[in-house]
Amino acid sequence: MSWRIPLFGSQQQQPEPNFQDIPTQSWYPPSVVGSSSHPSTPSSSSTSPHQRASDHSQSSSRGQPSPAEAAGIIARLKDKSVDELQRLLKDKEAYNAFFNSLDQVKTQNNLRSELRKETLQLARENLEKEQRISELRNQCTIIRTTELAAAEDRLADLERQKDEIMKSYSPAALLDKLQSSMVKLDEESEELHQKFLEKDMDLPTFVQKYKKLRAAHHKCALLHLSGKASVR
Questions:
Q1: Angle value at C-alpha 86, between 10 and 101, nearest 5 degrees
Q2: Distance (Å) of CA 79 to CA 10, 41, 82
Q3: Which of 2, 22, 119, 224 could tie 178 with a disulfide, CB 3.0–4.6 Å?
């Protein structure tokens, strides 16, 4: 926190410090040294609430205290003598001691300390989990190099089997099978007819078997023609 603390005397009977007489080599910020010892008090009749809100937001963006915080700081400074105020301006250690005694600064320091403790606790917990993380990483490496490789090989084999099955049931493959069946039925019919001519088979048996073969042949032929028409 870097606040510019307005300093001025509180008792009217005490002479006000002449800040222009302070050496320019003072470590205190020039904006405080060169400013008036009496901060201007905004009038409710001349300043609108919107303007006061705008001034507060601009003050917060520059790291300055809010009006309520500044009022509390000023109350702390009112009881100080001129010598004490000049010492705050000239002596950095005295200023730091006064600055660190402010409630707002104490609150910020406590918050920073708590955040530091929480961060250290999280870091310790992460370090405690480092061994477990390393073990899990090694397990992942083993799975990747052994089990995963075997699973990928198995998957590739199944993919090949699927492709072969899909090819066997493709329209072109089915038409080829129908064509092969037609040729085979023709050959069987011809063999049966040859047996009948050679008197190796009686007429009723020949008619029954020949009729069955020719019906199957014509069925395959119709399916073949229908399939070719649908593929086109």
A1: 75
A2: 6, 20, 10
A3: 224
How is the chain split among helix, strand and coil, in percent rounded to 5? 75, 0, 25
In a domain, 47, yes or no: no
- Sign, CA torsion 62/64/68/69: positive
Q: How far apart, in whole angstroms, are the C-alpha atoms of residue 130 and residue 135?
A: 9
Chosen domain end from 168, 198, 214? 168
Task: Please check whether residue 117 lies inside any domain of the structure.
Answer: yes
Classify residue 215 as exposed, middle or buried by CB count within 10 Å of its CB (0-12, 13-18, 19+): exposed
Length of the chain: 232
Do 107 and 124 lie in one domain? The reply is: yes
**Residue type at position 189:** S
Side chain identity at 108, as an amino acid letter? Q
- Whether 89 contacts 7, CB under 8 Å: yes
The answer to whether the predicted template modeling score (pTM) of the entire model surpasses 0.85 is no
Helices and strands, counts by H and E, the chain: 10, 0
Is 182:147 a contact under the CB 8 Å cutoff?
Answer: no
Residues 153 and 227 both lie in one domain = no
Q: Which amino acid is at 218?
A: H
Q: How far is CA 148 from the centre of its chain?
A: 27
Summarize pLDDT for 175-232 with one digit per residue, the tens: 888 899 999 999 999 999 998 888 888 888 989 999 999 999 999 999 888 888 887 6
For 28, the token pair is 């205190």
Q: What is d(CA 50, CA 62) in angstroms, rounded to the nearest whole number?
A: 19
Question: Computed from CA positions of residues 176, 177, 182, 187, in that sequence, does the dihedral angle turn out positive or negative?
Answer: positive
